[in-house]
Write a structure and sequence with these properties.
Blueprint (H helix, E strand, L loop, with lengths): L2 H22 L1 E8 H6 L4 H7 L3 E8 L1 H13 L6 E5 L3 H6 L7 H5 L11 H5 L2 E2 L2 E2 L2 E6 L2 E5 H6 L9 H13 L10 E2 L2 H4 L2 H9 L5 E2 L4 E2 L4 H15 L13 H7 L4 E4 L2 H9 L7 E4 L9 E2 L1 E7 L6 H12 L1 H11 L2 E2 L8 H4 L5 H7 L2 E2 L7 H16 L5 H15 L1 H8 L6
Parallel strand pairs: 1-2, 1-3, 8-11, 13-16
Antiparallel strand pairs: 3-14, 4-5, 6-14, 6-15, 7-11, 7-12, 9-10
Length: about 425
């Protein structure tokens, strides 16, 4: 046998050996959205090195297309094994019986335990005392403020409560030259959607829904008080109704067109990169206190789809992503806030002046109603409040219409509950 034939035979044997090895490996499918889906590729080699019998196939999906794609995949029984879901999506996919219950897996895990997570965030994954998701990264909204302008208004620290917040806003507005229109705070529904009014309702310990989440509760006195406070910023000329005067929020924050806004952790990096001239002139603070200091419990969780044939491998992958060191590496890649609290002791996070407020706020978060209809209700909140902000309707009439719309949205839920077809 000549040398050429020996080499060819050797290569064939190697190929067959590799093919057999690959065929013995479990293929695990993982769907992730947006930037997280792009960056997770960088972490897969480490997991596969630790678990040589598992190969992870990642599919990155744009956030805008994710919801419909997941529902289509469920209908066609083509869902991935593991997926990231926004916390507010958990109830919907649970309602169609798409998600695997995780309690038994958690009970035997050395990595995943409820006490390792922020309580309010963990709670977003619990429905009817059953756990359906594991927090992957966390998100919430709090106060971003220009410390230099607040100091000019007589405040050497951010406002602690609603009274100070309104007072500081008025004093900031008074600083504007007579020939210039400036505002104290940015609260536009166009950019913040329903988040800000809902956060203020949570601040006042107000309800959003009542009677087992079957009816709107926007006429509750605590909820009404929170909405009046929210609207007072617009009615007092402290918040702009539109953004036509400036190009974007970063320009507005930098120029002092407004000095405060309620937003999330992604804007820490954005402000640093887009407005470097603001270094040492801005900071973050937990939500000003009313009855509570609550804000929304956001972020994304890791779930296993019920029809997965690789649940054991899927759980190994979730445990890997839940380890403290993995969480820290993911934070370094994405700047997403870690769900595991121990990770916050790392110097990368602990030494960051804008991160401390987020940790405090994450200890004070509350889940939105854990029902599949919440996304529809959130849109209605935005729609009806816009009418009040632009003076087209009174708050009282807006609340009446909002409750009516919400009651209609929840009609099916009431019917299902009455027949014991769902339980909460």
């Amino acid at each position: 046998m000549n040398r050429k034939r020996v080499i060819i035979l050797f290569l064939i044997l190697i190929t067959l050996s590799c093919s057999k090895h690959d065929s013995d490996r479990i293929e695990l499918t993982f769907w992730a959205m947006g930037a997280e889906g792009e960056h997770i590729h960088e972490m897969i080699p480490e997991f596969e090195a630790l678990n040589p019998d598992i190969r992870v196939k990642v599919q990155t999906i744009p956030w805008g297309a994710a919801h419909e794609k997941l529902l289509t995949a469920f209908a066609g029984q083509a869902t991935p094994d593991v997926c990231m879901l926004g916390n507010t999506w958990i109830p919907e996919f649970r309602s169609i019986d798409a998600l695997q219950q995780l309690d038994s897996l958690i009970q035997t895990s050395d990595v995943v335990h409820p006490n390792k997570y922020f309580k309010g965030i963990w709670n977003t994954n619990v429905i009817g005392k059953v756990v359906y998701g594991i927090p992957w990264y966390v998100d919430t909204r709090l106060l971003f403020y220009r410390s230099d302008i607040l100091e000019q208004a007589g405040y050497d620290a951010p406002p602690e409560n609603w009274e100070q917040w309104l007072d500081a806003s008025r004093k900031i507005a008074d600083l504007a030259p007579e020939d210039q229109k400036r505002y104290a705070i940015f609260l536009s529904l166009i950019f913040n959607d329903w988040q800000v009014p809902v956060i203020l309702i949570m601040n006042n310990d107000g309800p959003l829904l009542k009677d087992n989440n079957c009816y709107g509760a926007f006429d509750d006195p605590r909820t009404v008080e929170a909405l009046r406070f929210y609207l007072s910023f617009f009615q007092g000329g402290l918040a702009s109704r539109t953004m036509t005067e400036i190009q974007n929020i970063y320009q507005g924050f930098s120029s002092g067109f407004f000095s405060m806004m309620i937003t999330g952790p992604w804007n820490v990096s954005e402000i640093r990169s887009r407005a470097p001239e603001l270094e040492s002139k801005w900071n973050t603070a937990p939500m000003p206190f009313k009855r509570t200091r609550n804000s929304v419990a956001g972020g994304a969780s890791l779930i296993i789809f019920k029809n997965s044939n690789q649940k054991k491998a899927a759980w190994k992958f979730i445990e890997f992503l839940s380890k403290t060191e993995t969480q820290l590496n993911f934070f370094r890649l994405t700047r997403d806030l870690p769900a595991v609290r121990e990770t916050w002791n790392a110097d990368d996070i602990k030494s960051d002046p804008q991160m401390e407020a987020f940790y405090t706020q994450l200890l004070n978060v509350r889940a939105t109603p854990k029902i599949s209809e919440w996304e529809q209700i959130a849109v209605k909140i935005q729609e009806h409040l816009e009418g009040v902000i632009f003076g087209k309707i009174s708050l009282e009439e807006s609340i009446r219409r909002l409750n009516n719309d919400v009651d209609n949205i929840l009609e099916k839920r009431r019917w299902l509950l009455s027949r014991n077809l769902i339980s909460e």
